[in-house]
């Protein structure tokens, strides 16, 4: 299973980014083989449509779950259609490495 987490930076010490479509980075984590990857958000500067473009990006990478501080209004129905689970984590101090620990337990 692959999980995407919105991140403020490109290290495990970075915190979760509250913005979904315009976060700084995406952290992709494969729970089965523990593979990790940080990807700069290609939609960060989009004036509009960043959320749907981000959903399509994740769908193309076979992401199963997305964890972010919040999601835009249009995103839930898109994720539901693609069967991608949306997890809202309202803790801006939570570090990426702490979220990985939660996923592994």
TrEMBL record:
<protein>
    <submittedName>
        <fullName>Diguanylate cyclase</fullName>
    </submittedName>
</protein>
<dbReference type="Pfam" id="PF02579">
    <property type="entry name" value="Nitro_FeMo-Co"/>
</dbReference>
<feature type="domain" description="Dinitrogenase iron-molybdenum cofactor biosynthesis">
    <location>
        <begin position="13"/>
        <end position="103"/>
    </location>
</feature>
<dbReference type="InterPro" id="IPR036105">
    <property type="entry name" value="DiNase_FeMo-co_biosyn_sf"/>
</dbReference>
<dbReference type="InterPro" id="IPR003731">
    <property type="entry name" value="Di-Nase_FeMo-co_biosynth"/>
</dbReference>
């Amino acid at each position: 299973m692959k999980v995407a987490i919105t991140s403020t930076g490109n290290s495990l010490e970075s915190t979760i980014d509250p913005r979904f479509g315009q976060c700084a980075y995406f952290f992709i984590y494969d729970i089965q083989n523990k593979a990790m990857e940080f990807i700069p958000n290609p939609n960060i500067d989009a004036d509009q449509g960043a959320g749907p473009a981000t959903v399509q990006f994740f769908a193309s990478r076979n992401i199963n779950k997305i964890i972010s501080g919040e999601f835009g209004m249009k995103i839930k129905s898109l994720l539901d259609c693609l069967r991608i689970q949306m997890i809202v984590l309202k803790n801006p101090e939570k570090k990426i490495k702490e979220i990985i620990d939660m996923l592994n337990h």
